[in-house]
TrEMBL record:
SUPFAM superfamilies: Glyoxalase/Bleomycin resistance protein/Dihydroxybiphenyl dioxygenase. Pfam families: Glyoxalase (PF00903), Glyoxalase_6 (PF18029). Transmembrane segments: none annotated. InterPro entries: Anthracycline_SecMetBiosynth, Glyas_Bleomycin-R_OHBP_Dase, Glyas_Fos-R_dOase_dom, Glyoxalase_6, VOC_core. This is VOC family protein. Residues 15-128, 140-272 form the VOC domain. It comes from the Bacteria.
Amino acid sequence: MTMPTTTQAPPVRGAPCWVNLLVRDPLAARAFYTAVLGWEFDDSGPLGEGFSVASADGRPVAGIGARSPSLAAPTVWTPYFCSTDLDGTVARIRERGATVAVGPIAVGDGRAAIASDRDGAVFGVWEGTAPLWPTGAAAAPPWLELRTRDAFEAALFYGEVFSWPRPGPDGIDVAYEEERIVARVAGRPVAVLSGGGVESAPDPAVRPRWAVHFAVDDVPRAAEKAVRAGGAVFPAPGPVSSAPLAEAGIGTRAAEYVVRDPEGALFTVSSR
C-alpha cells in the first residue's frame, strides 16, 4: 500500500480518501498507466523501494505498489475510506457480517486494513496522516461507484460502518437519486452505490465491486491506448447516469469504458 505524507486539506471521516493498486510487476504497471492515463510517478514516498505515487496534471491520484508473492488475491483497485478509529471501524465491519482480510497493520505514519463487504466488494480503511487527495474538493480524483447486489442494503452497511449520513462540518449527506444511493461531501458526490451486481457472475466486471473512475479528456482515445498497451476494453455496464449526477460532473454511461490492465485490475475511464 502506498500512502502519502502530506495533503492539501484534511479528509472527511468516513469518506473516500485514496485508491491503491498492488501488482506483481510495478514497473510494467507504471508503464501501462503512463501510456493510458499520462500519469507521472514519484518513488520518494516513505514506504521505500517498490512503491510509487501517481500524479496527473501535478495532482496526486493513486498509489501503485509491489504485491507480496505469497498473496494469492486477484489484482484490484482498492478504495480507502478515512477513519479516526481504525480498531472501532474494523470491529463494526466484522459485527455486520463482512470480512477483514488484512490488518489493522502499521503503514508509514498510519495504519490500514483491507476488507470485503457482505457481497464481496473489496475496500480499505485508513487511519493516520491524511492521504494526498482531499475529500470534497473540486475535481478531486477519482470518483467511486459501488456496483452491488442491492444498493439499499449496501448503503445500510456502509452507513453503519462509516456513520453515513452525518451532519456537521465534516458531514456526509446520503440521498436516493433515480435508483442510486449518492454520498456527498460539501455537495459533491464522492461515492455512488448502484444495484445490478451479480455475486456468481463469471465476468468480474459484473460481480459486486468498487469501480474506480478516472477522468480523461478523450475516452475513446484512452481506450485505444489501453488496448495498445496490452489491456482490454469493455462497455461500461448499467444504466445511463442520472441528470443530478451529470450536473455534478459525473458523465453518462455512453462516455465510459471499463479497462482491464495486463494484470487483470479493472478501472473505468470516464469523460471529464
